[in-house]
Amino acid sequence: MERKIAGQTSLEDLSRICPILGRRMHPEFDEGGFVVEVGRVRFGAGRPVVIAGPCAVESAQQMMEVALGVKAAGADMLRGGAFKPRTSPHDFQGLGLEGLKILRAAGDLTGLPVVTEVMDVRLVDTVSEYADMLQIGSRSMQNYPLLVEVGRSGKPVLLKRGMAASLCEWLGAAEYIANEGNLNIVLCERGIKTQASGEYSRYSLDLNVVLAVHAETFLPVIVDPSHATGMGSRVEAASRAAIEFGSDGLMIEVSSWGEVSGVMRPRCDADQAISPSTLRRIVRFIQSREAAATDAEDVVSSDGRTWSR
Ligand code: PEP
Ligand code: MN
């Protein structure tokens, strides 16, 4: 019986799918990886990067308030959607160009670089004018013309994993960007659809893929615990777990709704937002791990002899 299935891929096919990004083809990276720089922020340089902000930019007041909150909590970068991919065309679609301008102003106010989603190939230039990093959302991961265009823009790209994408499909999508000469790609695991999706979690957080990404490519990979769980109460635990799995960073949705009086409930994804004070705890967790790693580096005995780890 014929056994080969058209289009079927396995990790063995990665050298064909990803000659640019496959780790096996680049022994020069050895165990290390490629560092992606967004202003002063460095992904893949050892210290996990924290991106935080609202799901959507809703108003100048909301964006400034969240921006100041996440900056005070210790975030490295700001997020906020101006163009939102929504299930229904009747839902809030984002503020568009006005949202981009507000996000840019919030980035300038706080000194944090900003990332925002671009969904439309016709808007890559406009979004590039305002953003420091372009986000490709889960639903657009296989929009190949869009991948080519963000590749040509030369801007750093945050490539979220398609919600049903295999590792080969995800890295194949990244290869489209790299093929345009742009290696400034950060991958983002954001949960995948499984039998459990929607029953007791929004998606299923696939932490195994962090290890697989590091094994198969030299690109950095971060984790979005907000969309993966869909519940603010789970975001801190999921963040810690992601860091333990070697994630190069986190992207977290934050709102001061419920914490600061008078703040309106977010119009998108309110139930998965965490407060700036919970974000602060997550940042502290990352810092305490770093401190522990430094402490563990050398053991010096009383007679001055040193043992390295
Ligand atoms: C987002 O991060 O704003 C978003 C829409 O996430 P995703 O594309 O992963 O659904
Ligand atoms: Mn969201």
List keywords for this structure.
alpha/beta, binds manganese (II) ion, 12 strands, two-stranded antiparallel ribbon, 309 residues, binds phosphoenolpyruvate, eight-stranded parallel beta sheet
Can you give a write-up of this model?
- With 309 residues, this protein is of the alpha/beta class.
- The protein is 35% helix and 15% strand.
- It is built from 10 helices and 12 strands.
- The protein has helices spanning 14-17, 60-73, 97-110, 124-130, 144-153, 167-178, 208-216, 225-229, 232-244, 276-295, and strands at residues 36-38, 41-43, 49-53, 77-79, 114-117, 133-136, 157-160, 185-189, 221-223, 249-253, 298-300, 306-308.
- The strands form 3 sheets. The chain has an 8-stranded parallel beta sheet with strand order 9-8-7-6-5-4-3-10. The chain has a two-stranded antiparallel sheet with strand order 1-2.
- Helix 2 packs parallel to helix 3 (97-110), helix 2 packs parallel to helix 10 and helix 9 runs parallel beside helix 10.
- The longest helix has 20 residues, at 276-295.
- It is globular and about 55 Å long.
- The N and C termini lie far apart (54 Å).
- The mean pLDDT is 94.
- It binds phosphoenolpyruvate and manganese (II) ion (MN).
- The site of manganese (II) ion has 5 residues, from loops.
Query: What is the radius of gyration computed over CA atoms, rounded to a whole number of angstroms?
Result: 20 Å
Bound heterogens, unique = phosphoenolpyruvate, manganese (II) ion
Sheet with the most strands: spatial strand order: 9-8-7-6-5-4-3-10
Determine the mean pLDDT. 94
Secondary-structure class: alpha/beta
Helical residues, percent: 25-40%
How far from one another are the termini? 54 Å
Point out poorly predicted stretches: none
What is the overall number of helices? Answer: 10
Q: What is the succession of H and E elements? A: HEEEHEHEHEHEHEHEHHEHEE
Number of strands: 12
Largest sheet: 8 strands, parallel
Strand content: 5-15%
Overall geometry: globular
